[in-house]
Amino acid sequence: MNPVIARSFDPYLLSRVEDAGLNASAPPQQRWVDGWLLRFSPGKAKRARCINAVAPGRMPVAHKLALCEPVYGQAGLPLIVRITPFSEPAGLDSTLAAMGLQRFDDTRVMVLEDVANIVPPSLPANLVIQPLGLEAFAQRVGALRGSPLSQRLAHGQRLAQSPVPFQAYEMKLDGEVVACGQIAQEADLVGLYDIFTAEAVRGRGYASRLCAHLLSQAHRHGARHAYLQVDGDNHAARAIYHRLGFGDAYAYHYRARDPAAT
After folding, report:
1. Is 217 helix (H, G, I), strand (E, B) or coil?
2. What are the structural domains, with CATH classification, of the chain?
3. Phi/psi of residue 248, nearest 5 degrees
4. How far is CA 183 from CA 117, 134, 141, in A?
5. 15 closest CA partner among 90, 105, 109, 103
6. Burial of 243 (0-12, 13-18, 19+ CB in 10 A)
7. Cα gap 257→99, rounded to integer Å
8. Which residues contact 66 (CB under 8 A, 6 or more apart)?
9. Which of 146, 157, 214, 251 measures 20 to 30 Å from 10, CA to CA?
10. Beta-carbon neighbour count of residue 48 at 10 Å?
11. Residue 68 Cα to chain centre, angstroms
12. How far apart are CA 54 and CA 37, in angstroms?
């Protein structure tokens, strides 16, 4: 059964959020197959290297999967299908489960309905937040995550060619990077992406202050609503976002024949 939308949110807003997330994660390596958007970037983000079942199309699911398999094989990637409340055709999740594709990576989409409620953070003199170029940001967050060079380069390429403009920032304490993150804004909708705190300084409130700064920046440029995507089991991050006013709007997950290969 496909994930469901939380009743406390406007479904039209959440439809916009889903579209915005797709736009912001668009890689140059993508194509359409009968209503399904295939993405096959070599980067880390699964959103950029999976099948997004956007429209029902006309072919049977098994037929479409057979057409998709060679695309991912040629790209040297496993075939992954992303399942959301908007996935088509109806019942796709159950169909894939019956075909042997295993479920993994429960992810939550969280939404803040009114960005105006965010209070800009006050920062001590030795803590600064400054803008960062997109390719430099991909290298910065990749280094913090321990990502290989190939994933950092793919991330930088995707950001540079994104149809939605990103703005990236880093937070420094006494000249040392303690956190980084970026925003992607479409009209009055802003997404938080790649919020990451250096492991040695977690639990000190840096992520909260960085997010508040980014959201305040976006509000000054017309943002009214905000969204983000976070692993369902990342309880520390979700607690931060809940304190900022975000709520769980809907969930999504992935399916693959061998999740360990993803």
Report:
1. helix
2. 11-108+252-261 (no CATH), 115-251 (3.40.630.30)
3. -70, 120
4. 17, 11, 14
5. 109
6. exposed
7. 9
8. none
9. 214
10. 21
11. 23
12. 7
Residues linked to residue 197 through DSSP beta bridges, in sequence order: 179
For residue 89, say if its preceding peptide bond is cis, omega within 30 degrees of 0.
yes
Residue 1 has pLDDT above 60, yes or no: no
124 vs 201: CA distance, rounded Å? 16
Q: Which residue type does 216 have? A: S
Strands (E), the chain: 30-33, 36-39, 51-53, 81-83, 102-112, 127-132, 166-173, 176-186, 189-197, 225-231, 247-256
Whether the full predicted model's pTM is greater than 0.85, yes or no, is yes
Mean pLDDT score, 93-106: 97
DSSP strand pairing (81-83 vs 247-256): antiparallel
Give the integer Cα–Cα distance in Å for 107 and 254.
9
**Closest C-alpha among 253, 214, 213 to residue 82:** 253
Residues 6+ away with beta carbon under 8 Å from 69: 79
Helix-then-strand count for the chain, H and E:
7, 11
pLDDT digits (tens, 9 = 90+) for 53-98: 999 999 999 999 999 999 999 999 999 999 999 999 999 999 999 9
Place of tokens 């889903």: 18
Nearest CA to 86 out of 24, 174, 5 is that of 5
Helix (H, G, I), strand (E, B) or coil at 229: strand
pLDDT band at 43 (very low <50, low <70, confident <90, very high): confident
